[in-house]
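Note to self: keep these together.
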Amino acid sequence: MSEVSHWSGRMGKRPDVIVVGAGVIGLTLGVCLAEQGWRVQLRTRSAPAATTSAVASAMVGPNFAPRDDPVGIWARVGIEEFTALAGVAGSGVALRRGRLVSRRAGLPLPGRQPCSAAELPAGFAAGFWEKLPLVDMPLYLDYLAQRLAVAGGRMEQAEVDSLTELAEQAPVIANCTGLGARELVPDPSVRPVRGQQVIVDNPGLEEFFISAPFEPAWTAYWPYPDHVILGSSQAEDDERMEPDPALSEDILRRCIEVEPRLRHARVRGHQVGLRPVRPSVRLEAEHIGDARCVHNYGHGGSGVTLSWGCAREAAALL
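Structure:
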């Protein structure tokens, strides 16, 4: 992880903008602004490696939203950005091929290669192949932090209790606090959705697998060079951060049924994250005191996919 340092401003000047939050949403916006020449201070309670973003499985896409839907627009930007980043050494991004499957039969999707019957595990009725960016989040967050520093941005690890107080310290604020917006704004429409995953050694897998629909528990695995993340689950309004051993065993069982090579893979650990879910992403500007504040939060489980699209739009709002 890059060193988290205090920012005193270039030539003694105060920052042009304070970005609150060091998850993928805040870091990406900080990078966008710093590379446009803004003096950026990123204020964060937790270092990037301790944020929810660090435990994301982080497959970028696919995108099924209508072309004029904001989420669809943001997702398309994200897929393009991460596809380009797959060619950047040290970014933690790689293009991977994999299957997206369902237990329900359905019509083939235009432009996508359907799975043959032999390519569908037992119990699944339909599916298709897709090639998408897969992001190793600890590496990627470190890459963003380094990119922010190179562009002149600075990070300060400190509690933020009030946006009004920040409005006295900079003319522009970007609120990228995820679940923290529930208390900071406050916004009671932001709710936690707990997810749990198991990390194992990679026994030679190169392709990802995801089942749909996303029910309280579904089967998924995402391979990285030396490990595989197995999932997944979602539990609304559950803020427990300790892994549930029974759920871990269930995740392992479901993934092994689909991919037997995982049976003897050594378990490295377990991780839990709280997705910051909201009825819709909040991406809008308002004035707080004399400062302009752009809110950019509520991305649920799609924060990585939407990060670049939302960052570009938030930067335009500023």
